[in-house]
Amino acid sequence: MDTEEIFDRLKPLYPHEYFSTERDPFYILISTVLSQRTRDEVTEVASRRLFEHYSTPVQMVGADVKSIESLIRDVGFYRVKAGRIKEISQILIDEYYSQVPACMDELLKLPGVGRKTANCVLSYAFLEKAIAVDTHVHRISNRLGLVDTVTPEQTEIELQKQVPVSYWREVNELFVQFGKTVCKPLSPDCEVCVIEDLCAKKEKKK
DNA sequence: AAAACGGGGGC
DNA sequence: GCCCCAGTTTT
Ranges for the HhH-GPD domain (predicted)? Predict the structure, then answer.
């Protein structure tokens, strides 16, 4: 299958770039942690509110956990995340001179950071060629027939084989936007889909 | 492999 | 009231 065709057709529909207004790796790391299992409108507001008060690892460590909790009260798992933000900040100070490491192995050592979050940081903060596989990317890659996988990590590996490197950084945002608006988890809107002719599941519908 | 963490929004 | 959401960690 011609995978470039997929991205060339989706790109004009979703020109907006995620995290377009923020480049600070620490902000991207923390806001990505906050985004886990939480809608992005909520995440956006909470991240900005948090960083208006504390914007560096040192400030996070110096802050009262209760204060951080109250600032991010509306995101999911906010107590757990508040604790992890302090843990992460302390590790960055102790191990990385208060900088966010630009390397998968080091990122994965941080509490609350899995492959999806680590790949988002590598891609959005450091512009590395990384594919961040969340539930949307996983679902859509399988629906299209791009991959045939069970776990997100398998999807990441298979996508790396199927997708030209120059598109790796775009896969996450394009598939997430596409997944939220058209290729939804249940009842995808195939009648308005611009890549239906490329989809392995189109015949199964109806 | 499945459960647990969890508040907010949509229907 | 019930279901889902830009996942990760623990059992």
Answer: 34-181
